[in-house]
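[09:14] KT: can someone run the structure on this one? pasting the chain below
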Amino acid sequence: FPPPSSWDAAYERELQTFQDIGDAGEIWFGEESMVRIIRWLEKQKVPLDSSVLDIGTGNGVLLIELAKSGYVNLTGIDYSPSAIQLSEKVREKEGMSNIKLKVEDFLAPSAELSGFEICIDKGTFDAISLNPDNAVGKRKEYVRSLCSVLKPEGFFLITSCNWTKEELLNEFREGFEILEELPTPKFCFGGRIGNSVTALVFQRK
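[09:31] RB: done, structure tokens below
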């Protein structure tokens, strides 16, 4: 993954593209990753008014899909102001006023970021884990933050293409237990076969 400074540049480009042609840009892990998350929530009969946090929302497309599926209590955070600007534009275009968007650093979340029943991560933990500056410490901070924003018994859905199931179980062993592994296709972007996507559902103890 590129360093944080270049995320901003990438989102600024996508913001410009969206303004020019109305295209929201890249969907991390593609459409099927969003469908997989929404199907699981529906299968679990997660109430539509459950509070959902999208960690590293990027262009906010997952939240739009959740809103279209009937979820009404949605929050997206990203530390890139350009990403939040982009997701605000996408939200306006779709007319989804019930989506809350905030610029937040998940490793140092603000006090009002708490009490969520569902937290979703598509690629943000991956990006944090690859930070050349103290990746191990940042992963620990991530788990601490997750414990502070997610209610006990709350669900955490993570999609990763850097970590295997076993590695993720190890990363989140303190405070979380695995509920299930979601089926994923055996490929990742970049065309490298065998580097499969892992999607897990944890429950906070």
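[09:33] KT: thanks! The radius of gyration is 16 Å.
[09:34] RB: yep, looked fine to me
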